[in-house]
Amino acid sequence: MSPAPRTLGLLTLGQSPRADVTPTLRAILGESVRILEQGALDGLGPEGLEALRAGDGEHPLETRLLTGEAIGLSRAALMPRLIAAGAELSGRCQSVLLLCSGEFPDLAAACPRLIQPIRILRGIIAAVAEHRTLGLIGPGSDLAGAPGQWHAYAPRLICAPGSPYGPADALAAAGRDLAARGADLIFLDDMGFSEAHRLTVALEARLPVLCATTLTARVLGEVV
Q: H-helix or E-strand containing 214?
């Protein structure tokens, strides 16, 4: 008799389902893993979404709506909804994957089943980038803090802006720019990036490309 499928929850800062990311995860995890999705912004209308937008001077958390539109959220305003969604999803799943490469201690404390990709990614980046120049592509709003966040794991870091929610040609241009500046490999630092994004950048940069989403999924394949 085949074992019962394991259930993995996907927790997004935005709205679910994440039709842009889930196919990449499904392709790696296979059909033996049952996937449930929930978003912190599920059920909100225009007024509710507007109330959660990052204000002037706030560092926004970028995520995706069902329409495909990107939205920059206030971390403080979002956290109660994100914690509630994570706790609810934890009750239905063996593990819950956060679809964000940031770190959320309060969320982790409230959801013991939570897997934060940043914990996985730090080890992988340290293993491959200690003696290489790492080119990092991520949303422009995150790049100011990227050197401080990744210096301990990738001492030689160069960055270029690129969003999984923006045009593909901008992402391709970021890959070419990093290659021209001497990157040895490239890291797509956002859980909104898919296998298609990884292949686009690899083709343009002609370098090895690591993707936060695919790296995390491959590790999860051993866990779930």
A: helix 212-223
Helix then strand then coil, in percent of the chain rounded to 5, is 45, 20, 35
Domain co-membership, 21 together with 113: yes
Same domain, 75 and 158: no
This prediction has a pTM of 0.91
- Ordered mean pLDDT values, 10 residues apiece, the chain (224 residues): 73 96 93 94 96 92 92 96 96 94 94 94 96 96 91 97 92 97 98 95 97 95 84
What is the span of the domain harbouring residue 29?
A: 6-118
Q: Are 161 and 140 found together in one domain? A: yes
Q: How many domains does the chain fold into? A: 2
Run of H or E residues at 97: strand 95-98
Residue 1: what pLDDT? 43
CA distance 172 to 178: 10
Number of H helices, E strands in the chain: 9, 10
Buried b (16+ CB within 10 A) or exposed e, 211-220: bbbbbbbebb
